[in-house]
Amino acid sequence: MTSPVAIITGAGGGIGCAVALTLARQGWRLVLAEQTAAALEPCRRQCAALGAEVRTFGGDISSERDVAALAALAERHYGGCQGFVSSAGIAGVIREIDRYPGDVFRHVMEVNTYGTFFCLKHGLPLLRRRGGSFVAIASTSAIRGRAGMAGYVASKHAVLGLVKSSALECVGSNVRVNAVLPGPTQTAMIEAIDRMAAQQAPGGGINRPVAAPYGKPDDVANMVAFLLSPASGHINGASLVIDAGSTVA
Known about the structure:
The protein is of the alpha/beta class. 46% of the residues lie in helices and 15% in strands. The protein contains seven helices and seven strands. A seven-stranded parallel beta sheet has the order 3-2-1-4-5-6-7, with helices on both faces. The mean pLDDT is 90.
């Protein structure tokens, strides 16, 4: 059988690359996307070393034209895909809402929310051709508030709305749409968030109700791989939390 194809946005980041490597080990062919092709080179090399066929795409996830071009690349070379992972995202800044810059808020929404919307809009038609699974990387910030992070929290709440609506539109088809919600995970993004939080309150990081350990990118990647697999065939519209229990405290 022909190896399945997955598109992964944000594959230059910690979680996106971990997903790519996990799928490479499982025999998937990969289309990796990031702002620049150069940012993908370390992940591309690692995936290729595992024997995966890899194509790369440099573009802006907040641009519908670029996302349409990404989908067209997968269609041109593979006739579609069986997996689409929307992992690209940014954190914005940490400011109380009355001091939160409007241009930053807009940019966070454009990347995190519009980016997910464009991936769904242009990715679902590809998935419908062969059947498959769409996974959005959201955050536990999609189901809780975080002081000082209005842009990020609002954008991730919106991502869940897109996932739930799209999942309903796919009921009865051969396509499923789900989200994974990582808690703080050992990536460059969480390091940047902790630095910003420490600048606001020296010695501090983001507030968490329990001292659960930070997750690893592989923790998220394993869940994504499950959602892309036939083993999760009855899961649609789900929001699966990966946070060592911090959101239930």
